[in-house]
Amino acid sequence: MGSSVTLIFTLVILAGMMFFMTRSQKKQQQKRQDLLSSMKIGDQVVTIGGLHGVLSEVNDSTVLIDCEGIILEFDRSAIRTVTPTASVANNHETPAKDEDKNTSSETHETPEDK
Q1: Is the separation of the CB atoms in 37 and 30 below 8 Å?
Q2: How would DSSP label each residue in the chain?
Q3: Which segments show compositional bias classed as Basic and acidic residues (predicted)?
C-alpha cells in the first residue's frame, strides 16, 4: 500500500514538471514567433551569428540586412533580436542631449571670471 502511494505521488510530480516545462517552452516559441513576425524595413537586427545591421527587405522566409552598405540575405529564423526603428532613433538622440549639457556647463561663467 505504501509503495503504491509513493509511486502515484512520484508520477503526479513528474506529470506536473512536464506540464510546466512544456508550457514555458510554448510561451518562448510564441514570443519568438511574434518577434519574427513584427520585423519591418528599417528595424535594427542582430543575427544568431552576431552580425548587426538594418533590415532593407522582409520576405516570407528571408530578410535582406544592410550592414554599412553590404546587403546580406538571411533566413528569418537567423534573427536573434530586433530593435524597432523608433527605439533606434531615440537611442541616437539621447547621447546628443547629454553632450549639449556638458558643453553648456563648460562655458558657464563664474562670478570670479567677471
Answers
A1: no
A2: -HHHHHHHHHHHHHHHHHHHHHHHHHHHHHHHHHHHHT--TT-EEEETT--EEEEEEE-SSEEEEEETTEEEEEEGGGEEEEE-HHHHHHHHHHHHHHHHHHHHHHTPPPGGG-
A3: 94-114
Tens digits of per-residue pLDDT, 94-103? Answer: 444 444 555 5
Residue with cell 563648460: 106
**Cell representation of residue 14:** 513528474
Side-chain-side CA neighbours of 94 within 13 Å: the count stands at 6
pLDDT (tens digit, 9 = 90+) per residue, 47-76?
Answer: 999 999 999 999 888 999 999 889 999 998
